[in-house]
Q: What sequence folds into this?
């Protein structure tokens, strides 16, 4: 693998306008919108804005992407999709989805409580509850809405919500919807800090107040796993409920791919498990797996479910078909693990300090390296990865986020490593 000169190390000032500048901009809307529109248009033309790339094929290990300048299809290896198990592109899943879609139709025309539940929805809820080892499960239109839903349904004024500071945006949006709860973050993954917080908050809690301890199975930007084996006993000792967003653990961790709870052998000990179909199941939609009494509460009082149309049967069918494919072929989960090991080992051989047990591998890029020109070069060399930049993460935590699939071949991985060896490693190592 050749190590090229670090051409993409540019002074940050040349490239320093970020989405945050526009998000926080003041002034008349027409001016703000026009300036932003111009920024996105020129950024796309220059290859520096790589958001919303137009994909012309299924989001499998190789994709056709429309080149923003020429308009022509461009074949790329896909290391930027959460389709971790390759199910988006799986003929058996397509066939089963079409079969079920013919029976149940495309949509229901209403929210679940009124007219939006079919036997197919119930079947998926039952299968998910069994997979997750819980009594019940409630479907949501998206994982985002599931994160808005549980807290609105379950939390009341005076309740205490303790959460990992790296929680997903949807958690924070849910938190913003509830009034009168006492919300306190703990430093990322720091269970000693969580223990101190639990002791303090429990002392000050009103009689009857619930305490929720919230974490993610796999953190979406870093790919690291929550220390659930330490969090759950702490929560149990404090009489708190554990809430786990396992969006990126499902299909990835645990012997059956059931997620982070299975990985740690904590079945039956996590009170609320949030999941999504938009990652390993490669569709869209979300769910909450939990005890029956909590599930009923959530069904009737989660406003993001009650006041939104039910998941269309075609989506439920695809999620169910994906679940069946994982049950039928558990080797997919194993293949994913092997590929993650290969990519991690390959990136380390390039000198990049990475580690991951999940399908997300974060390749940190020092703050003094301009990320966008690097991303443009990686894209031009046919590798689709996501560059995560400020303000999505602090400047000193900007990175490439490499997402691995079970269906990546050795040559797909070799391509990724070749391009990272030529483009990313030299720039990163030169700045270290
Ligand atoms: C940790 C986490 N929770 C929730 C979500 C939202 O899931 P969905 O795409 O189903 O809305 C995401 C997706 O980005 C996520 O990464």
A:
């Amino acid at each position: 693998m050749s190590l090229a000169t670090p051409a993409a190390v540019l002074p940050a000032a040349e490239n320093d306008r970020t989405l945050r500048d526009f998000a926080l901009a003041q002034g008349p809307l027409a001016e703000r919108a026009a300036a932003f529109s111009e920024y996105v248009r020129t950024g796309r033309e220059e290859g520096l804005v790589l958001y919303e790339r137009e994909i012309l094929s299924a989001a499998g290990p190789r994709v056709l992407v429309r080149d923003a300048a020429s308009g022509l299809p461009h074949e790329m290896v896909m290391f930027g999709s959460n389709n971790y198990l390759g199910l988006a592109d799986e003929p058996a899943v397509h066939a089963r989805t079409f079969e079920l879609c013919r029976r149940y139709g495309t949509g229901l025309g209403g929210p679940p409580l009124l007219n939006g539940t079919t036997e197919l929805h119930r079947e998926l809820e039952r299968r998910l509850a069994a997979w997750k080892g819980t009594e019940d499960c409630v479907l949501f239109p998206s994982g985002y809405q599931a994160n808005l839903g549980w807290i609105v349904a379950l939390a009341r004024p005076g309740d205490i919500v303790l959460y990992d500071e790296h929680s997903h945006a949807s958690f924070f949006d849910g938190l913003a919807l509830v009034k009168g709860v006492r919300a306190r973050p703990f430093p990322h993954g720091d269970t000693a800090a969580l223990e101190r917080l639990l002791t303090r908050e429990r002392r000050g809690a009103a009689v009857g107040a619930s305490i929720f301890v919230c974490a993610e199975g796999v953190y979406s930007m870093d790919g690291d796993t929550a220390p659930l084996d330490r969090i759950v006993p702490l929560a149990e000792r404090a009489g708190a409920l554990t809430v786990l967003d396992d969006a990126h653990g499902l299909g990835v961790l645990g012997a059956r791919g059931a997620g982070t709870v299975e990985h740690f052998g904590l079945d039956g000990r996590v009170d609320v498990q949030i999941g999504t179909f938009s990652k390993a199941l490669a569709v869209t939609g979300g769910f909450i797996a939990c005890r029956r009494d909590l599930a009923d509460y959530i069904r009737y009082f989660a406003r993001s479910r009650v006041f939104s149309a039910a998941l269309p049967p075609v989506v439920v069918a695809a999620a169910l078909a994906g679940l069946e494919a994982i049950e039928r072929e558990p080797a997919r989960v194993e293949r994913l693990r092997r590929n993650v090991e290969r990519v991690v080992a390959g990136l380390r051989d390039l000198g990049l300090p990475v580690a991951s047990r999940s399908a997300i591998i974060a390749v940190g890029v020092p703050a003094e390296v301009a990320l966008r020109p690097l991303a443009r070069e990686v894209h031009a060399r046919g590798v689709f990865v996501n560059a995560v930049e400020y303000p999505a993460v602090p400047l000193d935590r900007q990175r490439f986020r490499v997402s691995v699939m079970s269906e990546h071949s050795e040559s797909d991985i070799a391509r990724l490593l070749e391009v990272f060896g030529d483009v990313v490693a030299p720039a990163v190592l030169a700045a270290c």
Notes: Confidence is low (pLDDT under 50) at residues 1-15. The pocket of pyridoxal-5'-phosphate is lined by residues 142-144, 147, 168, 170, 216, 220, 245, 247-248, 276, 278, 286 (CB under 6 Å). The chain has 16 helices and 13 strands. Residues 410-431 form the longest helix (22 residues).
